[in-house]
Each structure stands twice: as structure tokens, then as C-alpha cells.
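hey so i finally got around to running the thing on that chain from the lab meeting. sorry it took forever, my laptop kept dying and i had to restart like 3 times. anyway pasting the input first so we r on the same page abt which one it is
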Amino acid sequence: AQVVESGGGLVQPGGSLRLSCAASGFTFSSTRMSWYRQASGKERELVAYISSAGGTSNYADSVKGRFTISRDNAKNTVYLRMNSLKPEDTAVYYCNAQRIRDGLDAWGQGTLVTVSS
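ok and heres what got predicted. didnt touch it at all, straight out
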């Protein structure tokens, strides 16, 4: 099982980015997908998750109304659209694939998002 993030970069406050996470080696359409982030000196935190079919999603309070998680099961890809970015959104963003019934728990290498003027 493998997940690979892309799309990070430097953006000004108020700007937008879309992160992508390409999955392989497992049945993507039956797997819950999540985005986490870890800022320098802080613990990793859950940003958002989406159910296997995409019908359910949930967000950290700090990103509600600004971030949107989505998935394309035909492309084995999950996305995180980030709008109205703030300096406090600066972090390494990680994609996670989790399926409790068989112990799948795959992490990517992360993609750095820096929000700064």
C-alpha cells in the first residue's frame, strides 16, 4: 500500500492550494482517507477525513468552512482544497489510508505548505 502527496508550496495569506494524494496497492474505494498536518514543534493533527464512498466527511474546527476534502475513486486520488489560508495553516500535510478490518494504515511522506507573505 502506498500513498503519495503532492501540491504543497508557498502561498500568501488568503490564498488557495489544492493537495492531491495518489493511492496504489490497495482497494482505494473501500478505504477511509484522511489528511493530517504537523506544524513545526507540534503534534500531528487530523485535518479532515472522508468515507470510502465519499458520502461522509469531517473537519477540524480550525479548518471548517475553508478546507474541502474530496475523492475520485476512479482515479484512486483524494484531494484537499484549501482556501483562505492563514499563516497558522503552515505545516507538513500527510495523507493517510486506513481500514480497520484488515489493519491497513498507510502514510505518505508529506507535502509542505507554507503560508507567508
